[in-house]
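Hi L., both proteins are below.
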Amino acid sequence: MMLGRLASRHRSQGGIVMALTVLAALITGAHAHDDHDWIRKGGYRSPLTNEWCCGKDDCVAIPADEVEATTPGWWIKSTGEVVPYIDTLPSQDGRFWRCHQPNGVRRCFFVPPKTS
């Protein structure tokens, strides 16, 4: 009888742990989109194409050490892409952001104000 109660108690605690794990994953996922939600909420558009910059999950932060100012524009080291200075927008959170279409083509590139 005692063994049955312990097994039942263990199963219910396991369910609670699983529910908390799922909740934590959902909260973390929501936070990841919140990092660049200012782009979507700001209604930003590409300076060259007038295309909306941000949809769901299409903007990524680029570490500052992965971006270098060159004569023709901002060079993203990891991709080899050069973004012309005229095709950049000011970043509100002080980070570099690259927004792209589902096929990976760049929509917008945000640059921290003190580096633009």
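That was the first. Here is the second:
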Amino acid sequence: MFSYHPKHFRVCLCHISIHQQHNIRLHTSYSTVKIMIDQKQLENVESFKYLGSILTNDGRCTCEIKCRIAMAKAAFNKKRALFASTLDLELRKKLVKCYIWSIALYGAETWTLRAVDQKQLESSEMWCWRRMEKISWTDRVRNEEVLLRVKEQRNILHEIRNGRLTGLVTFCVETAFCSGLLKER
């Protein structure tokens, strides 16, 4: 059992609220972990929300992805009149990519995508294009036809990978720049 006083956490640049008494184990063993802060034991939980992302004890991102897709669909439905209007197709596509995809892909750089998650993301992308073009699922229009109508390709997964690469390149450039500054001194 660990017992720490909150002042020790401030030294590590961390802030732990005693009022939020939750603890998450990021492993699959079933041994209980007891952490005490000011003689109060933290509760072990299966998942919790931190900085807008859902963290689970198994480390998977499926719950987070489903949540993000639901938020993006809700945002789309709020502005459905705009996205399905008679505005120029290119403008509507840019609005969807800017407004909807930014909601759906928030934090995607950290996701570990499984095949199931990839299918959910691709189906949500097709859902947006179908709603934008007012194509019902009962019309039996194939996805390839929908993509031709909106003059797009499936690229939501490409955007996620591109975002990861951009983040990696930025990190490498910043690291190289900082190490160069340190060497000059």
